[in-house]
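Example: HTH gntR-type domain-containing protein.
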Amino acid sequence: MWTKVNKNKGSAYQQVMDQIVKKIESGQLQPGDKLPSERLFADFFGVNRTTVVHALDELKGLGILESRRGSGRFISSLTWGDFSEPRIDWRQLISARYGKIVDTYGEKVKEASRKSDFLDLYSSEMPVDVLPNVEMPNYTLEGIIKEEQAVSVFGYQPLMAQIRERLVKTNGFSFKKSQLLVTGGGQQAIFLILQTILSVGDAIAVESPTFFYGLPLFKALGTRLFGIPMDEHGIDLDRLEEAILKHKIKAVLVNPNFQNPTGTVMSAERRQHLVALCRKYKLPIIEDDVFFDLAFSPETQAAISPIHAIDPENVLYVGSLSRLLGETTKIGWIVGPAILIQRLSEAQKMMDVSLSIFTQMAATAVFDSSFEQNMTSLRQRLETNSQLIREWIDSQDFFQLAPLSGGYYAWLTWNGGKMTKALAERLLREGVGVAPGYLFGEEKGLRINYSRLERQHLPLFIAQMDKLRRWLEEEGH
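Written out as structure tokens, the predicted fold is:
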């Protein structure tokens, strides 16, 4: 199973690391598996125990291994900071890398959702009947071809004008046309930024829990992800600074407004201090702000100022309409320094990621057709749905609910056992799909998309959550 170290081929401890990581990559070692003892490893590899300890400590520092007091070393059940060895340039092999990343739980939810009585609270998008009913103008083929003349490397000019007008009016931004790039959704925007400003093996810090944890784009880029704990005010800055020094963090990625999955809104003071900390270490902040428009009240909306407004030179702002148009119409944008936006537009062109003119015209129509009226109606609908979750929380004493002031996700925690994949799939078989915490880098916790929860669903939901409570209590004992 293991190969003796050849000291003529380089560092002995690095060869030990390489062999262990290859076993993980090939699936021969699984998350949670226990490793042989240091003495046995020394025999297997034909090296001294000090070399083995060095290799194992390095893998632990990267988040690939974890130690359990009195039990030994294990493959980490959560892969924060993981990367593939050897450090292949995944940009050349990206399609092959994506092919190895399969969300089997998500596929099982899709399969289960084909049943008419299945309650899908897992999916990341809002249901069609909740989305704003946007009227699309009629275009002739000749008209569409004519509109293509208004497309530049930065996007469709009428759409860019609408985005800029709204960001200036609502978010208090001040920027030039050359500082805005239209993308195929928020995730593509983040992908473009990371593949432009980072190298293979570089590390970035994100909030924990976070939906970024499960995204394949980070592994495709060879980017190492380090999760930083949060409190009620947002990302923990003391822990962030520790990670910056320990892991040589190259960028910080945050989702400050109605964070996915917790719904947390970063406080104004925390935003200021985050900017100051990143200025200190000369780190760019990538601000994913796709939920900004989904505050329940005008007071909440007025209280959340984007981080980009504090430091436009060092904060890259990512927005999106995809949440409002559904998964089939992906439109996002990046606001940042002109020199970087130019480079990002070149990267987008090099990757041959062309945005459909029709998609951009449809997005323009969203702003043209009573945008504020549609948004007000949507916020009211989401707040009404959130009341269902609050009523249920008040009726029991096991699950705790993170505060809800916008967005459409509820984050539940408890004092019982871990929300394992087995428990999540057991709940699936009972007719309810939720997003378990391990998808976000947390062993406890689950996310519910309450935009999909209607009052008629409550009896099924409550009954199944009572079952889940019993299972979790059994796991905790």
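The chain is about 45% helix and 15% strand.
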